Amino acid sequence: MNHDQYDASYISGILQSVKTIAVVGASANEVRPSYFVMKYMLAKGYQVIPVNPGQAGKEILGQTAYARLADIPVAIDMVDIFRASDAVPAIVEETLALDPLPKAIWMQLTVRHDEAAARAEAAGIKVVMNRCPKIEYARLSGEIGWNGVNSGVLSSRKPVMRAGFQSYGLRPKPGEGKD
């Protein structure tokens, strides 16, 4: 697969099919990108599980943190990697040992490892590299346009009215339609 660019349908398909996201490298520091990505994805109705050995057993955004992916007691749909590129092969190996296998591995901005991606894809896992799910969700849902950013996506869909904010949303929040 060409990981230099992704079709909107590929990214959207992943974001619509996953419900549980493990964030490897999650931080309890509210000014770190992993923290506000977790916060955003939680607000969009995803179950987000922080993975950070230094925070294991503690809570980040009300979610219990785990030391390793294998410690998470529920099935994971997507592994979001907030670690340096050289850490990716070990995380992919840890992911491949999970049962069931996640649907996707997502590497954050500036994170790329082509060999590890090929290994995951050979096992049937979709891979996204050098992208942020928060940014992609906002771009595909039209929300990023509210800040004056050209999302490259045209839509005539009306926003879904929710308490406190509007969202075009890729999926309903729990209890608001299909889960």
Give the overall form: globular
What value does the Rg take, in angstroms? 16 Å
Q: Helix fraction?
A: 25-40%
Largest sheet: 5 strands, parallel
Amount of beta strand: 15-25%
Structural class call reads alpha/beta
Order of helices and strands: HEHEEEEHEHEHEE
In round numbers, the mean pLDDT is 87
Strand line-up of the largest beta sheet: 2-1-5-6-7
* Unreliable sequence segments: none
Q: How many strands appear in the DSSP assignment?
A: 9
Beginning-to-end CA distance, first to last residue: 30 Å
Q: Count the DSSP helices.
A: 5
Summarize the entry for a quick read:
The protein is of the alpha/beta class. The protein has 5 helices and 9 strands; from the N terminus they run H-E-H-E-E-E-E-H-E-H-E-H-E-E.
Throw out a few tags for this protein.
179 residues, 27% helix, 17% strand
Structural description of this entry:
This protein is of the alpha/beta class and 179 residues long. Helices cover 27% and strands 17% of the residues. It has five helices and nine strands, in the order αβαββββαβαβαββ. It has a five-stranded parallel beta sheet, with helices on both faces. α1 (8-17) crosses α5 (133-141) and α3 (88-96) runs parallel beside α4. It is globular, with a radius of gyration of 16 Å. The two termini are 30 Å apart.
